[in-house]
Amino acid sequence: MKFMSIDSPDFVKSGADILNCNGELLVLLRFPYQAGNKAFQIIRTLPEYIKFLKERKEKESITLMKSFEYVVRGIVNETFIHKLNEKLDRTETMNWLIIWDSVSIEIGNSYFVNNKIDLRTELTDAMGQNVSIIVEPDWLDEQNSINAYVADKDGVVRPGAY
Questions:
Q1: What DSSP assignment string belongs to 85-116?
Q2: pTM of the predicted protein model
Q3: Model pLDDT, residue 91
Q4: pLDDT tier for residue 90 given thresholds of 50, 70 and 90
Q5: H-helix segments, 23-161
Q6: Model confidence pLDDT, tens digit, residues 31-45
Q7: Hey, what's the torsion of the CAs at 75, 78, 79, 81, to 10 degrees?
Q8: If exposure means fewest CB atoms within 10 Å of the residue's CB, which of 8, 33, 52, 66 is most exposed?
Q9: Bridge partners of residue 30, in order along the sequence
Q10: Are 67 and 141 in contact (CB under 8 A)?
């Protein structure tokens, strides 16, 4: 089986096309040999996308999401939490992802929440920070995602265990 490299012109162009079309690009970074550790980042410019790709390490898995759905985004304050509480009152189920814009993807900038208590706790701890809360994306959906890997030093793609 042949795996796509993040250096592939098709992969780079796909991300640039999504960014151009949507104005934003949601990426999933899976870290090899770290017991399922993964993180998400919203990229908003082409230079930011190119820099993101250049900073990757061997065997990392990168998934580009063709689309994603915001719940809310902004600076966490009392008004932000109030608006979110209004949405919570109308929400039966939630599988949401909080992404902190100012935190590096390598040190854990995203957190999954599926209940109101965890969500409120995370937001209370994030007062004053810029966050995006999105509906958890189905990153295994091949219709809405494009996946590639960082090649080893010899240029061959050998995925790790994720």
A1: HHHHHT-S---EEEEETTS-GGG--EEEE-SH
A2: 0.89
A3: 62
A4: low
A5: 46-54, 78-89, 116-125
A6: 998 888 899 999 999
A7: 80
A8: 33
A9: 38, 61
A10: no
